[in-house]
Request: fold
Amino acid sequence: MSIGGIPLTALLSFLGTALVIEMTPGPNMTYLALVSATDGRRAGFSTVGGITLGLAIVGAIAAFGVAEAIQASDVLYGILRWAGVLFLLYLAWDGWRSSAVTTATEGEGRYFARGLITNLLNPKAGVFYVAVLPTFIAPDLPAVPQAMMLTGVYVCVGAAVHSCIVMLAGTLEPVLNDPRRETIVRRVLSVLLALVALWFAWTTAR
Reply:
């Protein structure tokens, strides 16, 4: 039995792999916790929308070989990697200095754009699509349709996991209505995001 030309066993194995990867703590998870706990679920879901679009774009790019070219070039990979690290550090700094009053007036488009940029500058997403996803593609069938199908599955898994993070972290937002508590939690999560950025720089180094 197959779905979209992909054997069911391979699809289920890929689904499990995608779930494990998305549940591993990383930049998306940390930033979503920061946004949802301090600015609310609406802001969190706007960020999820940007993250999801970013994952879909990177997957589509990878299906046509562009991500593989970036992975093969140390210069391009390095530029993308350091841009991602610097952007995460910027988000941590912005979270440290922001307040509930300033973020509430900036609109949801800002969160969407940040979620999108974070994933477009994440070389690990490209590495996944280039190094992991192809192992689930049947060699005797057209590769691009299978890659697009698996990309869709991965994006859906990511959106589901990220939405759960928003729901869980968002439960803290009513407790943080007190400005003092909100500031403390925002700054703690911002420090964690900065540490994740440094960890990201370390783990993606060649």
Notes: The radius of gyration is 18 Å.
